[in-house]
Amino acid sequence: MKDKRITLAWTGASGAPYGLRLLECLLAADYHVYLLISSAARVVLATEHGLKLPTGPDAAKAILVEHLQCDASQLSVCGKDDWFSPVASGSAAPKKMVICPCSAGTLASVAHGMSDNLIERAADVVMKERGQLLMVVRETPFSTLHLENMLKLSKMGVTIMPAAPGFYHQPESIDDLVDFMVARMLDHLGIEQGLVPRWGYDQRKK
Ligand SMILES: Cc1cc2nc3c(=O)[nH]c(=O)nc-3n(C[C@H](O)[C@H](O)[C@H](O)COP(=O)(O)O)c2cc1C
């Protein structure tokens, strides 16, 4: 039977709308989402989207359920030290995880196996269990250190997906740009999506 569980981590890189839209799409695709939110991600979410999430996982979940009008039973919000969460152990963790947006800080910690908070631990677990890890890294320009960390992870089978939307689908809004990135993530995860016309099929023409 298909495991319809996934771990999603929001960290403190710019790009909160990507993370929110991805969450919305995963829930719509009937996934159970384990959501991990760093302290910096909460600051970015408030800055970029005006959505203020409290530190407590239960209170944060209540706000997200209200905001997205989703089924509460599909969402688990885990605290940063919630070591008893399923995502903290290879015996129970979902085999798929996305870090979106992914900061240079979390990129470095994951590349070096720090496992110092639940996001880093969950990523470490997915890698050791040979699951699928997608990191939607956002920084510009990239330093040599950032590039080395990405190369190291890529060689270990992690998909590095820079938050760099294309323009060939002729976006008309920021939502179109966000959907471009989220569509590529869903494609990589093997989750059906119809957010953006596919290359060579029904391209928008002006
Ligand atoms: C509004 C805002 C935007 C930020 N944008 C980025 C970014 O695009 N990339 C990045 O690597 N860090 C960015 N930062 C800095 C990170 O949030 C910071 O390094 C933080 O320690 C990352 O912690 P985390 O990985 O635990 O979320 C931003 C911070 C703020 C407040």
Give a written overview of the molecule:
The chain has one domain (5-189): Flavin prenyltransferase-like (Rossmann fold, 3-Layer(aba) Sandwich). The mean pLDDT is 96. The protein is built from 7 helices and 6 strands, in the order βαβααββααβαβα. The radius of gyration is 16 Å and the shape is globular. The chain has helices spanning 16-28, 39-49, 57-68, 104-111, 118-128, 144-155, 174-189; strands spanning 5-10, 32-37, 75-78, 96-102, 132-137, 159-160. Helix content is 40%, strand content 15%. The longest helix has 16 residues, at 174-189. A 6-stranded parallel beta sheet has the order 3-2-1-4-5-6, with helices on both faces. Bound molecules: flavin mononucleotide. InterPro entries: Flavin_trans-like (IPR036551), Flavoprotein (IPR003382), UbiX-like (IPR004507). GO terms for molecular function: carboxy-lyase activity; flavin prenyltransferase activity. It catalyses: dimethylallyl phosphate + FMNH2 = prenylated FMNH2 + phosphate.
Describe the structure in brief.
With 206 residues, the chain is an alpha/beta fold. It contains seven helices and six strands.
